[in-house]
Amino acid sequence: MLAGLWVLAGVGAALAMVLMTRRSKPVDPLPGLLLAVSVALIAVGHAVALSGGASPSYADIPRLLAYPGLAAAVTAFQRDRIRHDQDSLLDALIVTVAAAQAGWLSLIAPVLLSDSDAATQVVAGSYPLGYLLVLFVAARLAFAVAGSPDGAARLLLAGLLTGIAAEVAAALWDRPLISLGWLPAFGLLVLAVRHPGMGRPAQITGPAPLVTTRRFVGLLALACLAPPVLTLTHPTGGAALKIAIVLGGAIILFGLALLRIGSLLSRLRLTLRREHVLRAATGALVGAADRVGVRDAALDAAQELLDQNGSRAWRVDGDPGGTVAHASDDEEVATFLDSSELAAFPDPDEGVGVLPGPSLLHATLGVPSTSSLVLLALPARGLGREAGMVAVQAPPSHETVEALHALAATMKLALERLDIGQIMVERRSERRLRLMLRYASDVICILDHDLTVVHVTPAVEPIVGMPAPELLGMNWLDVVADVDRAAARDLVSLAQGGRPARGEIRLNTEDGHICHVDAVVTEVIDEDLMGFVITCHDITERHQLEEQLTHQAFHDALTGLANRALFRDRLGHAMARSRGAGGYGVLFIDLDDFKNVNDSLGHAAGDTLLREMTGRLRECLRDGDTAARLGGDEFAVLLEDVEGDEHCTDIARRLLEALARPFDVGGTEVSTGASIGIALGHAGPLTPEDLMRNADLALYDAKRNGKNRFAVFASTMHQTALARLSLTSDLRHALERDELVVHYQPLVALESSKIIGLEALVRWEHPDLGLLAPGQFITLAEETGLIVPLGAMVLRTALRAAVGWQRGNTGHQDLRIAVNISGRQLQEPSIVDEVRSIIRASGIDPTTVVLEITESVLLPGDGVIVERLNALAELGLHLYIDDFGTGYSSLSYLQTLPVNGLKLAQEFVEALPGTDTESGLVRTIKDLAEALGLSAVVAEGIERPEQWASLLSLGYSVGQGFHLAVPMPAARVPDFLSGLSRPGDGDWERSVALGAESALLTDGQPHH
Fold this sequence. Notes:
By secondary structure, the protein is an alpha+beta fold.
């Protein structure tokens, strides 16, 4: 029964330790696992011993192996949680040697002197050695963690000592049942493994604690009394071996006690030496007459505290300008430290820092990278840095660093004493100057050499809005407006020649306004002051009147920008300054579809939009650039001193981005872009009117090419206009000659890769120019009205082809065909009848027809468009919003439209997988569509596999893009419908090669 109890308790405890170790995932699982193995070995050994008889037997093997396992577990446990100091090691050795003497006399000697055989003596003697091994590592751990709140260590020690005590007692009194004391020891060890401290040991911080008097006296008593006590309790009886054991143990304990006393005296001697150095340093610091003396005294004390052979010291002096620091020692040539090297110094409030190598300072000073630099920094005064450095071969101990911090605190107090004395001197000088300046009528300001305000008369308060005391200590240039700081510096520079300098400058006021003053600067060189006196007379009212009259004559009343007259004048000056060598440019800016805002929201809203646009225009320009309103929604910008033609185009791009953001006009969100024409300054007999005309021509070219873009004037624009006229004529004939063809791009179920629909896309097979993409002629067709017959042709061709594919391919009877319909077509009164006629003629099921309308066409308030969309929906077909997210339709307006689905704009898909914000926006659009009751959401522009995967994870089910299939002629569609080609596989790769001529669409081009 006892054997079963041992097995149950030991194996159960071992399994519990293993499970707890695996569950808690400690930093080091080895201690828990070793404890589990050792506990199991002890339990199994005792169980076998109860079943197998007297020792020696096989039961001794697991028991003897358990003690090295316990010692290894304790060693692994204390690896990263104790400070491996000499004191705890010596104390553990004292305890172990004393215990070894007692163990020899009580346990080993009786066995050796008995008539037992050799095997029995070896086994019996091995057990005490195991006890001593565990006792040594446990004593070391106990002394190392003494005083710390390490619960896991306490539980571990309690379990080990309980078990070992039970084993020793059982051996002494020959009572095997006493060894059952291991059972509560198992419980304590399980609790130790379960304790959070087992898996996450606390970091070792601070020095090793001083040994308490009680512990030290107890250990010395143990070392001194153990031999005589053992001699009295275990008489040697003349046995030479016993005498040798007792005397040898006494000698070892005496030696250990001497080492322990020496260690304590060494620490005490070092502590007293540090105290002596700090006291001497305090006297030197208190007696220092200036900051340099404080620094040198602290540096000398730091060298004494570090006390390392071969150490070297440097003094760091902050130069008057504060931009560099001078570092030198007595042996090397002076060098200079830059800002990056000075950044290595500690914060002045900390005072002391240790910089290990390698670093920039090591390289600059020629110090080996294995050395450490001890840095002392004085609190900064201005921009200069005063400090000291000591290079030592070995990093300083924790106690030495603590002493250095105490030295830094004393240094800080000495500096504060010096500062207080200096402040008292300065206050006496201030009182004399205040009496002299109290009754001055104008503002009189006295500055020191670095332009810091030392005194200012009370007359300053009505000008800048701040009481005179608040200005004291500020830099004079901080009071001067930013635009005049250079002029203020020039006045100070001129005054340094000995003659007063006079000029007009602007000052900042407390309420944010600008005050104009007539300033006279005079240099003062005196024993009490080396600086400047500035006298200021307020001329703000005169400037305000002049500026008001000038502004009214040359600025637009609505926006506050320059008018045409001022713009033309500044352009003429810019051209004259450039002398025909470039360096300037003109931008003409025109809002796209501004008339729609006026017609739908009123002219007051249009004025609000123009003022908002003016604000964004100013944000994109430099202070020296000129912005003007020429009339209506047409603006102009003059860019001077440009660093190349690219500067003008960069500004144009920035303006387009700013104006593309929606405007808030009376609570209504309005999205409108802009078109920009650019005329660059160049050599030649151009006049301002010529340059403005060129910018206007470039603006027309930008609008013609799709709006919301910019164009740079070129001499070829006239030729382009002629070519455009020719292309318009060719497009009229293209409809008659059947040169327009329809290609088809599949719509794919993203999860199954099944083709669920096709989108019809028009191409122009021009006899001379080849296959033209929609971007090359759709805009022209819309401007000329040819989009109406062109759209009817595309719809008729697509529906006729779709009927054939629906009837000729099993499983595709519900194949959808999507056709784009333009805003110009919706404006035609006959659009509904025409669509109805084409559907009937083709015989197609209208529920499989999808008409795609660009979001920008859906202007709120356009009742005609809504009426025609409702009429189209009554035909049974589906209406989708194309390029959703790029227009400016409101959500409330979308809810009133008979829309069945939307197509996510390619710009959103292109950003995927993107950031959390970008993917969250794509998901939000899908959720928004579902909330609006839209049955389908199609993702356009899928060009990479990661976009496909990202859309699937975001809940999208239908997609379209070059990664799935490129637009293809009608003859190639059956391959996809029959499964010979599948989206995304190798057949698609061949489809790209075979149908490359149909993949001419580029990002941002219109399609139909």
